[in-house]
User: What shape does this take?
Amino acid sequence: MSDTHRYASRVRSMAPSATVATTALAADLVRQGRDVIPMSAGEPDFDTPDHIKQAGIRAIQDGQTKYTAPASGLIELKEAIARKLDRENGLHYDPSQIVITCGAKQVIFAAIVALVDPGDEVLLPAPLYVSYADQVKLMGGVPVIIPTEPDAFCLSPDQFRSALTPRSKLIIFNSPSNPTGGIYSRAQFQALAELIAEAGLFTITDEIYEHFIYGDEEHVSLAALHPGVADRCLTVNGFSKTFAMTGWRVGYGAGPEEWMSHIAKVQSQETTNTCTLSQHAAIAALEGPQDSVGTMRAAFKLRRNAIADGLNELDRVTCPRPKGAFYVFPNVSGLFGNTIADDVEFCRYLLEAAGVAAVPGTGFSAPGYVRFSYTLPDDRLSDAIDRIQTAVTAIQGS
Assistant: This one.
């Protein structure tokens, strides 16, 4: 007899992360001997800088292998983060208002656990990061998906007003965006900040890609623009992308003291604390040399240009040149027809026919689109572009 019906309905109705699932499938094919180019994972191909690794090694050698007290993180790391936020983001937080977590995703979930009751609505501009909606659903909240216009993929004030109801409690922004690479300008955020403050909503701003902006645009932290927003805003960041530390699992959130105290309680019951060794390495990341960040950004900009140009050479494919992050998000719906029905089938076809792993836009609440990560060595990226062009041309000729 199956026990399926005995598992919680909230889990049975939840989909696995689209990015993690695609990356795992690609890895399984590689283990079977297939030559697969992974463009599905949001992970820099660069190694963690040596001074950061050495800090982790020293922590091991010095016996820093115990629990962290308090569970919210090492005070030295929280002080370093407070200095970083003041220096780079114009945000002023006491270390007591900062919680260190196992990656940025965890602090977002802990914040939702601490805030969202069943029936509460959470506004999610789309395309959106794959985990936001399911995290909301796990707590009985109602994700309100707000499709944005493809010229910039940014929420407008009118769209915000239309989505707002008496049950609205929280809104989540991601700038620069995963998956689109879109960026909210200061003027766009300022206009939204006035409305958010007036509505009394809580806000989460996911700023994990802040250092990967490729033009003259500036990164803007929403909490710095309006005191009425800052009083209810959680600013989220981490070390995975900026310092190529995805496997170290260190993220953090900074926000109003009461919200942060509840997030810290969730952390204490969930993981106790983030890996102590990783926290020591994170201190070195913030306080040591920063030249690796510029090196990665310069490389990603060239790769962005190469793949955007390569995709735009294809008929019936439209690929905006992203302003930030390290993904392109082309519209491939012009290819749909007798051979390919939707973006999920397109990604399956691309994996089988070309050995290229990509993530369907449906996972980001944007059907008809596909996300490609360009965090690949130049030769592999060039090979991937050739494979994609060959596979798409075959569809067009069928």
User: Anything to note?
Assistant: The mean pLDDT is 95.
